[in-house]
Amino acid sequence: MPQRAVITGITGQDGSYLTELLLEKGYEVHGLVRRTSDLSRSWIDPLYRDPVLRERRLFIHYVDLDDVTTLRRTLIQAQPAEVYHLAGQSHVGLSFEIPEATCRWVAMGTLGLLEILRDLSAPARFFHASSSEIFGRPDMIPQNETTPMSPISPYGCAKSFATQMIRIYRQSYGVYASNGILYNHESPRRAGSFVTQKICRAAAAIRLGVEQELRLGDLSAQRDWGDARDYVRGIWLSLQHDEGDDYIFATGQSHSVQDVAEIAFAAMDLDWRSYVKHDERLMRPAEPNRLVGDSTKARTRLGWEPLSDFRRMILEMTRSQHRLLSAK
Ligand code: NAP
Q1: How many CB atoms lie under 10 A from the CB of residue 287?
Q2: Which of 28, 111, 172, 260 is most deeply packed, by most CB within 10 A?
Q3: Among 14, 91, 133, which is best to mutate for testing ligand 1, by the most ligand atoms less than 8 A from CB?
Q4: Atom of ligand 1 nearest to the CA of 159
């Protein structure tokens, strides 16, 4: 019998890489997608069109996160050993514009899943994709699993609620549930609304003469940016441990938005200073202090380590955008 896993948010960056990883490991994968998801434009489309996988080892179920009855039915029928909960509104900036929807999906969506999990006759291990944004503007640098949560965005607040609920269900009901406190992670599959991909795409578009300039907010903003493929390995490792727990997944190194621009534009033989314009309207209402993670616990307990390199990742993302735009 293959190990069976359910993934929420299977069409996203992490969901698609995790699907590939689990299929490689011999899992049967059940992906939950919302009614409005466009599968044909998602990264899992090539996998789902593969007749060897489709409806044999890769199954898609249409379920919205706030449709708890259908969620319950789907989980009861799938009987997974592992549930990876990655779905949700994942953009911090957007969460200031749609705070209620962000909280409904990110916070209450996770609670709904925990309630279902509690009732399952065959218990499943549960992973929750938490975020460094739960720390807000921390006094402690780097942050670890004991750093107090003090979010400064609706997204961070919703993730804090969900992170704490995971802890409560673990302690109070003995549910196997783990938080992966994920620092920013990128890849060629990163959605275009995130600053790294926005920069990589713009550098490629300017090189091709499709665009003339790039407008950005705070160039000095710093993040601990890792590679999604490393983080997805960590996500899987989290559920291979005997007990549920909380783990920071981070590189421990921070880079600025300007660093991304320098690498991406140089990859296209351009000087970023000639094309990047500051735009006050793109400043975040509340910019976190340096979010840098200490992943010692994940390294020692799970044997996880990030293998990629920041510069290589930005180069790969920019070249990938160049290929995509050239093909249009
Ligand atoms: P992503 O590419 O934006 O993917 C988000 C996924 O969630 C997509 O599959 C999306 O489906 C789905 N989704 C969104 N709202 C939904 C809803 N209401 N009901 C059902 N599905 C919904 O995000 P990601 O980068 O893979 O991140 C995965 C998880 O890690 C997210 O929870 C994110 O908040 C968290 N995280 C990510 C990072 C990072 O740097 N990437 C850092 C910390 C935490 P559609 O295809 O239909 O849009």
Answers
A1: 14
A2: 260
A3: 14
A4: 34
- For residue range 124-136, list pLDDT tens digits in order: 999 999 999 999 9
H-state helical runs in the chain: 13-24, 45-48, 68-78, 92-97, 99-102, 109-119, 154-173, 195-207, 228-238, 257-267, 296-302, 310-326
The separation between CA 295 and the C-alpha centre of its own chain, rounded to angstroms, equals 17
Q: Please choose, from the candidates 101, 214, 88, the residue with its C-alpha nearest in 3D space to the C-alpha of residue 162.
A: 88
310 lines ligand 1 (CB under 6 A): no
Interval 92-111: pLDDT, tens:
989 999 999 999 999 999 99
112, 170 Cβ separation under 8 angstroms? no
CA atoms within 13 A on the CB side of 92: 22
HSE, CB side, 13 Å, CA atoms: give it for residue 84: 32
d(CA 112, CA 69): 10
**Site of tokens 């960056």:** 13
Q: What is the reported pTM?
A: 0.96
pLDDT tens profile 173-229? 999 999 999 999 999 999 999 999 999 999 999 999 999 999 999 999 999 999 999
Amino acid sitting at position 273: R
Residue closest by Cα to atom 7 of ligand 1 = 87
Query: Does 37 contact ligand 1 (Cβ within 6 A)?
Result: yes
| 87 Cα: distance to centroid of ligand 1 (angstroms) | 4
Q: Which of 16, 42, 95, 131 is catalytic?
A: 131
Residue with tokens 């909960």: 85
184 CB within 6 A, ligand 1: yes
